[in-house]
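Run log, item B.
One chain of 224 residues. Sequence copied directly from the ordering sheet:
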Amino acid sequence: VFIAQSRASGSHRDVEDEELTRIFVMIPKSYTEEDLREKFKMYGDIEYCSIIKNKTTGESKGLGYVRYLKPSQAARAIEECDRSYRAILAEPKNKSSESFEHDYYSNITRQEPRGNTLPFCGQPEFCSFEKNESRIQESVSKRLSVVSRLPFIQEQLFALFDLVPGLEYCDVQRDPHTNSGYAVIQYSTAASAIYAKYKLHGFEYPPGNRLTVIFLEDGSDSSE
């Protein structure tokens, strides 16, 4: 994780306070603040933990904040904690918590594949695939072919395509004559493959090297 700070921003500590040291997590409603601290203290020095509660009943909403002393510790927690916590950097305190909770729930909801529906329909540009089928001219499948002028590193390519939920495998191959990169990617649903192709075809990885992503026939019924 790389965190950049604008030179034009205020003092370094102010930026850390507002943007880089607090993370927002989804937790079991049974968790106490001590449970939350115990789960996240391995990633760095914690300044405080807090659990968001219903103002009327006092019950936990299943959400919490963890504030670290250093941005690098917050970044490590986001990278290494169990994915069930869905950890992200928290919005600055000047944004209302209710607004942030709503945005957070909306975001994680559309990241959950549900049957044959498209999981990212919170994003208008992607929903147009569902609303305008004529835009998809090629045969859709759950398998993708990725081609590059440069060879791929298995772990890095896997991490890139794993940003889209549902990645089942990433098989990297190399042409010994041209040294170009070639890989086969497969997702659990066609919806995830469509989104990965839509977002990563033409993506520069590494910078200056554009990826070519196309569908590969996988024998499934593309009408899904």
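Observations after the first pass:
- Helices lie at 12-20, 33-40, 71-80, 97-109, 124-131, 154-161, 190-200.
- The first strand starts at residue 22 and ends at 26.
Flagged for discussion on Thursday.
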